[in-house]
Design brief:
- This protein is mainly alpha-helical.
- The chain folds into two domains: 41 residues, no CATH class; 216 residues, Phosphate transport system protein phou homolog 2, domain 2 (Methane Monooxygenase Hydroxylase, Chain G, domain 1, Up-down Bundle).
- It is built from nine helices and two strands; from the N terminus they run ββααααααααα.
- It has a two-stranded antiparallel ribbon with strand order 1-2.
- β1 and β2 form a beta hairpin.
- The termini are far apart.
Amino acid sequence: MENSRAPSILLLNSAHLAVVQSGQDRSGEQVCDVRQAYENRMSSANSAVPNPASPDPEAICAQLREQTLEACRVARIAAGIVAEGIATGVPSVLDGVREREKELDTLDHVIDQGVTAVITQAGAEHSRELLACLKFIIDLERIGDLLLNCSNRAAAVGSRIELQDIRDLTLMASRLEKMLGDVHDAFSQRDLNRALAVLRSDAEIDRLRNLIFLRHLENHDGSPRQESFHVLFMTQSLERAGDHAKNLAEEICHLVSGHSVRHVLRTYDKPAEQMFIEQLKRRHKT
């Protein structure tokens, strides 16, 4: 059935879009051509208009970097509280660890949301840093959980831990505190040497862990061990926190050098004889 009215055609002129009644029949192909011309014109106009609400990737990247550094500071403070709480045997000292753990949870959420929102708009260099921030906060949040677990057990046993265990656990927590401080400085200053120092420090935490385990599991002298269950779990938590700090140092090595940590260690941890030979070769070339 023919329509008594002529079809409405959208005509685009230089000023506006008008709807007119045409007295002539138009084919469907002509209508599509006009509509396509309008959509193309509108698409070009929209792309030319800047979006005032679009975020500045560089500014957001700088903000996320500072939030990541703040997370490093919070984790370092938590490790210091654990060291002090174990050394003094005062449970109330350890209350601050829970607050630091909550701060790390909040920073984890903020950084995760921020990186997800901006990473597709960032350049290659900023994208690498944003990925590093995301990896950082994952490890730092886990460190917070481990320190909270350690502090809860330390508060439960109080001063019932033997002096030798108190000494070694305090040393482990203090070493972890130093490692996290070095991680903060290495990330802030892009300092490869500090990152390598963190990798080497982890060996001391492992050594102290082994000493405590030997005392409580093998117990060659047959002396009674108090609170072994809690002491071993505290030791394991601190050792695992040290492993996460080591992961952070490895991430810094990759971010700064663009190489894996094994490649960096091969470059920096050369024997003295090899370094001397290479120095002689450089002198010979000059």
